[in-house]
Amino acid sequence: MKTYTFNADEKLINEITSYFHKEDFCEVGDYMLYKISRKNLSIIIYTSNKVVIQGKDADIYFEMFKPIDNIILPQAGSDEVGTGDFFGPICVCAAFIDEQTFDKIYDLNLTDSKQLNDEYILKVAPTLIKKVKHSLLILDNEKYNQVIKENNMNVIKAKLHNQAYINLQKKIKKLPELIIIDDFCGEDKYYQYLKGEKSIKNITFETKAESKYLSVAIASMISRYAFLTKMSELSSKYRMTFPKGASNLVDEFTKTFVEKYGTDELKKVAKINFKNAKRI
What we know:
Shape: globular
Number of helices: 11
Order of helices and strands: EHEEEHEEHHEHHEHEHHHH
Strand content: 15-25%
Radius of gyration: 21 Å
Distance between the termini: 50 Å
Helix content: 40-55%
Strand order of the largest sheet: 7-6-5-8-9
Largest sheet: 5 strands, mixed
């Protein structure tokens, strides 16, 4: 069983306890302040402010809550949003943080955008955009529907991530030694997809990287913010509230949209290779 132990100040303890739900807390024993339990995870915070994290998922939560001194800086990370949504663009961001940047954003609650609600992301992301050096790429639906004819989704993602890092490198002159991608295809496949193109090397590929590395979490939030903004713009333009995802609800909305605007207009707002398009 994996075990991590460290001392936490009051602020970090509040950060840990505020992350979990009421049902995650258990009855405490002697010398305990809090006891938190989830599948594959146990966290005990003692009256001495010592924190013990155990379980199969201990490494994930340690990366989220570890003391500042354990965060490797500088680092750059990237993540994408919109690849599972029928409507809206694909947004990819690569973000860079060093000690100076970290000091500017320390007071923000930054974790994976998938763990934060959209309301909070819309509130915090503009600050991140101003204070964090980053590169944001937005592939709109019309362009996506062209490139998907000759590339699968993972190829498109690999090329977007790579270009985001190339753009970021131009902004900061030199990328840090620690570069992370939220893994979606594996290192070998990733570089196969980039064969013949200028590519950024020495990348760390990790699943759930947005929960382990602050730079990836920031990239995830900026990407999500860009996606939400574009979805809002579509809703305003067509006077219809576009649903996220690719569920049956999306199918029903698509039928209404096509009845009102036609299939040619659908190509401007949706990913036509999705099964949703075939069900209308």
